[in-house]
Amino acid sequence: MRYELPKLNYDYDALEPYIDAKTMEIHHTKHHQTYVDKLNAALEKYPDLQGRPVEELLTDLPNLKVEEADRTAIKNHGGGHFNHSLFWKYLDPANKKDDLLVKEITSTFNSIDEFKKQFSDAATKLFGSGWTWLARDAKTSKLIIQNLPNQDSPLMTGLQPIFGLDVWEHAYYLKYQNKRPDYVQAWWNVLKFI
């Protein structure tokens, strides 16, 4: 079974004015589609891995019986596919506030405002391309903010991702150019469940 680009439950212009329709369209149909295509290509010679949930591939990455070049491709493109698939879900305008998550964030970070400040600071300061994540430590159940480079996923570090912010320039450059802090602040307006 081949991986496929997930369909969005909303139109590309649904996040205007915070994330513009053209960026959404290119981000979804070009960037994410490329991760899907290259992940499928990387798995062509490994039929036993095809169709496994991408989360399993990423979690089990060090143990996969694949060539190192293919492991890198699975990490990069599998991570890109997984990260973006999650990204689209929590940007859905139909999402409702998650009171339990809000309570947990407030308990961990003292307030939603303090959490947003720490998360925004981490996203703004992440060098180069990558993601800023709210993740849960499986061992302690503690929430943490984690910066990861490129398309690395918290799954690769033993954490469970809750949501993440894509800070690759392709996610914001058409509207915000080099003003990543402006993009980060605008993004909070489309994250409905906190």
What does this structure look like?
- This protein is 45% helix and 12% strand.
- The protein is an alpha+beta fold and 194 residues long.
- It has 2 domains: 19-90, Helix Hairpins, CATH 1.10.287.990; 99-187, minor pseudopilin epsh fold.
- The protein has a 3-stranded antiparallel beta sheet with strand order 2-1-3.
- Strand 1 and strand 2 (143-149) form a beta hairpin.
- Helix 1 runs antiparallel to helix 3.
- The longest helix has 23 residues, at 68-90.
- It starts with 20 loop residues before the first helix and ends in a 7-residue tail after the last helix.
Short note summarizing the structure:
With 194 residues, this protein is of the alpha+beta class. It is built from 7 helices and 3 strands, in the order αααααβββαα. A 3-stranded antiparallel β-sheet has the order 2-1-3.
